[in-house]
Design goal:
about 250 residues; alpha+beta; outer membrane lipoprotein receptor (LolB), chain A; 7-stranded antiparallel sheet; 4 helices; DUF6503; Deoxyribose-phosphate aldolase
């Protein structure tokens, strides 16, 4: 066979298999892919993100192969730095490693750091290997149409919060995440609704502030939160505002 024909045939086979592989992604996965692209896409990769949230300074790095989240603050003991990465959790005070933390405190600090990083990075983290995405259908809020995606997590790789459940509303036209709701079990559990209250675009990434709302009954089913929001029956609990955001690209090797 002519080598040129052989090369063309091989290229065609690769292309066909590539298309088939893309088509194997579920509709929910395709919607999340589009949302990640709309919020920043490749700008998330190989970038360190710094911001202030309440009384803490956070530095977040996340790639397909690893992550490192840190927060710093000052209290009566001095400068405290918590670091959570693929190797585990580490706390230092004035640069000195603390080896005497009980396991429950390590777990609590790790969950706190991870939670802030998770929400700040949305929707990027929704393609983590442990995330299970399901398209629930379409919805309309304030005249805008949305795809509603439910996200749960496998126990293996899903972290301490793998039992939590999340709903996301992605605009059908612009693919932006305007609302989310979630069910959590830590600290007595409950449900929350978040709506976007402000937007900052830094380094090609869309960062969103939120109003954090809750129902009167903490045992409200997660799938009722949209109805309660639309009918004005949710109470404002807090505001989630990121400040002094910086995005620093990390040079590739």
């Amino acid at each position: 066979m002519d080598n040129r024909i052989s090369s063309k045939l091989l290229g065609l086979i690769v292309l066909v298999f590539g298309i088939a592989s893309c088509d194997q992604r579920t509709e929910a996965e395709k919607i999340v892919d589009a949302a990640i692209e709309a919020h920043g896409g490749e700008a998330y990769l190989d970038a360190k993100i710094d911001f202030d949230f309440r009384n803490f300074h956070y530095s977040i790095y996340k790639s397909p192969n690893g992550f490192e989240y840190s927060r710093e603050f000052t209290d009566s003991t001095g400068n405290v730095k918590d670091v959570l990465n693929n190797s585990g959790f580490l706390r230092t005070v004035n640069g000195v490693k603390i080896d005497t933390l009980p396991e429950e405190r390590i777990g609590a600090f790790s969950r706190s750091v991870n939670s802030v990083a998770y929400f700040a990075f949305l929707p990027y983290g929704l393609n983590d290997a442990a995330a299970i995405k399901t398209l629930l259908g379409e919805s309309e809020i304030k005249g805008k149409k949305y795809d509603v995606i439910k996200v749960t997590f496998q126990q293996e790789g899903g972290g301490d919060h793998f039992e939590d459940q999340f709903l996301y509303w992605f605009g059908k036209e612009d693919h932006l995440m305007d609302y989310m709701a979630y069910l959590y079990y830590t600290d007595g559990g409950g449900v929350r609704w978040r709506e976007v209250s402000g937007i900052q675009e830094v380094g090609g990434i869309r960062f969103q502030n939120y109003l954090n709302l809750k129902p009167e009954d903490k045992n409200t089913p997660l799938d009722m939160m949209e109805e309660l929001y639309v009918s004005g029956k949710l109470e404002k609990l807090s505001e989630i505002n990121l400040e002094n955001i910086q995005v620093v690209p990390i040079p590739k090797d």
